[in-house]
């Protein structure tokens, strides 16, 4: 297969955005029947490359060849018609339409009168799903299905158009282990049919499991291309980070330091939080100076737990106590006044207020503290903003710059500043390093350490195993909205954690004991 | 992402366009004034100016409320009907003295705002639909309460609000100016103003920052209702009689135009108080220009429509880096 | 998610049966209410079910109905068209001005011109990415101004009984011509919406425009066609109304955009787009028309009460919609 001419070839493509060189002379090729991993940190240019290939963006320089011929796609529609299918990380389907309608949208089977043949459409859709081992009612509206199933429907749609090249952008981010297996089965079939697959993922294990070759992007340039089998994990990470191999080995992948001194009395006690069907009697506590990791697979109830504690979602029963006092549940205002801060997972949707300035974003939560009788004190506000922009190293042209113009890492720092200027007692961090570049990531991890050292109680949610194992002093493991185990300092290892998430405490893991008080 | 930090000292084309974008409404206003000074006879007179300011006052009042609702990514289409409601109720209770009559008229506006605001903030109805229902139903209610009639208003204090003067300034202009100052203060200096733009900019983020989202939304629609009722009182006082059939008819269109032309984006997250006033002045000046020069008035409407489109088109570009 | 990897009751979604109940209520609510209202009215009012009265109701709704067909497409696509009322005015004036030249022209020109304006609306919305609300609001102002200017702000009479009058006053197979046209419009509109790719794409755009674009669907073209259709139908409604009244009135169709939106929303179409039916919209038009008829029969209240009832009715429907969609979440 090595000798086959490539299906898709990108030659020295350059793409500029105002102030940013997103792609700088990138070359890339995809051969028939290969699974080609595309990796790099955020901001390396992966999404831009995909968007250039699929016609969302036009390259400023360079060529794209498809089946050996030069092509210019003006719209995603044209690349799709040519035979390039894309599965995006955020599921891009229509929630109100049925599964079958989504699969066939825009190319519905017709009857002799030119009208849509609904019966045939449903039948065909069921057949396609069946073929790839996906179980779902094809007449059900898409939004009634779980995220994993929705993602599988998106994949079914993409591969049912007889594509020559399939691009998968983080396809497993909302899938569970079993669904991932199904997906890998599908990829295997595609490979046999001679389809080329571009596979974008942060999960290294997956890359090694199914990819043939890898292209590493860094700062808009190709840092490495070659067979994946010849590359060790550490070498791959080194390419991605642009660091020397020895450096990576020494530091580990995260910026977390050692353990923290913790106090005796818990600062926060969550007692029997229930929100059916998502949470069942979740109980745990956090001590000052302690980082408690909330671990679990997608849908285990981590974000729901965080939102229940913060009052962002109403709960059916349970209580939240801060320094011994019950706080009103279901009200972020009450939680904030009690000293809880919450950095949400989705920075764009729930965090930043894009058109407002850095200044206004930083003081958003502190407004009541900065105001007397409803009047905002400009002086106190500017002092606060100045202090935190400096201490967190927020890179912005001025406090007046709209926050949407900042990089992901700096936006995240602005949100951290928003909460730190409240002097919180408990800080809940939901995926604090997702989607930000590696430099800012390490900085934020260090910051979490510092904050814990200063005596804050921190709840850390992360999908990255090393972030949980290296960053936490204790780990609470969730599965299906229930606490299934608790790891203390010396028990926190990747294998223990995996065992807990996979089987719960009853199955045991390497003979170590789990503490019983977690289930309260 | 250092594009925002780049010093931009040379006066290139893009600087000029972005300057015009931010201040288009002022530029247009100045151009129109100069045009009038040259073309319109007797334009530079106290009478012309005071007529312009008096006629624009009710529009300014309702526009301020509409600007607040648009700032929260909402809208208030019901302002014209609320004016009619206030107009209908004003003469009904004037027999108990002007304070009672005025209070009842304003209270009606507050109630309408409470209904709109509750539907938007607590039930989760889209603002455009909630206030559309009030637009349709409100005027009907006004006519029913007024018995389909126009009732005279004779109370001197109320009449002063529409026809009187203080230090030579027409009373409606004073009322509008006070409202502008109050709303401007609310927007710029208070936490309420911050909540308004935060909710319009990103409602979930605002909620998760502990902002009282529902209360703020409710307040915004109540303020809009109150300002519309005030505009209804002023308009009624100017006429000397209630007129629920015609007072405030289609004023929501002028108000939205004024707000948008004044630089407040329809997508919310920003409230331009001075811009809104200028927008109202601009559209009123357009009508006055056509009338003063004996041009068919309806073409003023066409021109206003074109101005809306241009304003929004330019606004659209501003969001992009 | 322990029940299975590809189960229909996954986390983050609600059970399918609840979804179905919601969808059914959403889609069929207006029809159920319509049947109830007709049944009650037939019992309470003696002359409700007379042929004359029923014909009145249907004819009353016919002109609005044409607009509603276009509006349904636009609203399901996630947009709104506020300019249709003014287009009715412009359409009537164009018909009145050209009928002396040639009566077929008086039928063709209004939908053509208004369709072109709708095309312009569509381009500004789809290509220039301007908000539908504001573009068509400008249309509402500008087109009305144009109609008034063309007519010198006075209605233009259509003298004599040209063949043109037949399109407003004549009958085909025992039904009024405008009613005949509106039936065709609903039938074709319903078919296109439910059974063609174009219809599915309209739903897709309303459901999630970004997704539709990334799925490679022709988003811009579809939107432009929707606004063009909406304009053309409004212009045609204006021409038929002029034929009915034997005059082009520049103020015809004033505030009809509100009635049309009410009818569509009452008919179960989500104002946010992505869901709705043509049959629901038809039920919505008939409901509004019957309400007006009933209030006329009650006599004493007059048109004021009708506005109050329409406003109240609209609120009830959207509150129920909001409640249902919240339940569902």
Description:
The complex is a heterotrimer of chains A (520), B (321) and C (329). Chain A is an alpha/beta fold and 520 residues long. Chain A has 3 domains: 8-251, 3-Layer(aba) Sandwich (Rossmann fold), CATH 3.40.50.300; 255-339 and 424-520, 3-Layer(aba) Sandwich (Rossmann fold); 353-422, no CATH class. Chain A is built from 19 helices and 22 strands. In chain A, strand 11 and strand 12 form a beta hairpin. The model of chain A is unreliable at 505-520 (pLDDT under 50). Chain B is mainly alpha-helical and 321 residues long. Helix content of chain B is 72%, strand content 1%. Chain B has helices at 13-39, 46-71, 79-89, 98-123, 127-145, 156-163, 171-189, 191-201, 203-208, 213-239, 251-261, 273-292, 298-318; strands at 165-166, 169-170. Chain B has a two-stranded antiparallel sheet. By secondary structure, chain C is an all-alpha fold. Chain C has one domain (50-328): Orthogonal Bundle (ABC transporter involved in vitamin B12 uptake, BtuC), CATH 1.10.3470. In chain C, a hairpin with a 2-residue loop joins strand 2 and strand 3. The model of chain C is unreliable at 1-14 (pLDDT under 50). Chains A and C meet through helix 2, helix 5 and helix 6 of A and helix 1, helix 7, helix 8 and helix 9 of C.
